[in-house]
């Protein structure tokens, strides 16, 4: 039977995927509106246009619901293709981080969850496991490529470097609330390359 004759099965995997996507988006929007402390399964279900049962079938608690949404919609924003150049990879990473932090939804969710995690050990642990570690692993892979290409020193302290790369932009946007343009991102990229001891383009 050709494509025109195929029918998508009701209740099939595609439908379930669409519902999960809608719930993930609704979770972040609800978080941005109400904050984690006031987040409810009912509110997310209402925003997504589904019944509460659709949420509970997937996640038994608002913590798991929140982490699923973050890992599905937030972690991928840290993925940067290998351009073959540390400078280009780093600049692309900074631009992606900037876009994430200035997004109306993500920009509201990140500070709220950070604040809530200071008083909720379970949330703090889940945030690190589901968001912090995966995003950090992606950035670590970028630095590893730079080391392999001879653009960074082989004895680079990667853990310290990861803090240095992420810190300035987060501080400027989320703490100081100062606007950032592309010229600033390019200047920050050059500053970071010097701070990391960049050796120039690899062979």
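Sequence proposed for the structure above (203 residues):
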């Amino acid at each position: 039977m050709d494509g025109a004759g195929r029918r998508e099965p009701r209740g099939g995997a595609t439908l379930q995927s669409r519902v999960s996507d809608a719930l993930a988006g609704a979770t972040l929007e609800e978080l941005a509106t109400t904050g984690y402390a006031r987040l409810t399964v009912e509110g997310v279900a209402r925003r997504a246009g589904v019944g509460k049962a659709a949420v509970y079938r997937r996640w038994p608690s608002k913590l798991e619901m929140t982490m699923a949404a973050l890992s599905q919609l937030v972690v991928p924003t840290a993925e940067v293709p290998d351009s073959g150049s540390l400078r280009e990879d780093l600049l692309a990473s900074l631009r992606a981080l900037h876009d994430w932090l200035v997004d109306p939804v993500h920009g509201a969710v990140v500070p709220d969850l950070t604040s809530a995690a200071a008083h909720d050990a379970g949330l703090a642990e889940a945030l690190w496991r589901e968001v912090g570690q995966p995003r950090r692993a992606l950035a670590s892979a970028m630095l590893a490529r730079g080391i392999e290409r001879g653009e960074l020193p082989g004895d680079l302290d990667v853990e310290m470097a990861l803090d240095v790369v992420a810190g300035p932009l987060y501080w400027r946007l989320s703490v100081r609330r100062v606007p950032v343009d592309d010229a600033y991102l390019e200047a920050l990229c050059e500053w970071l390359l010097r701070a990391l001891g960049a050796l120039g383009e690899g062979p």
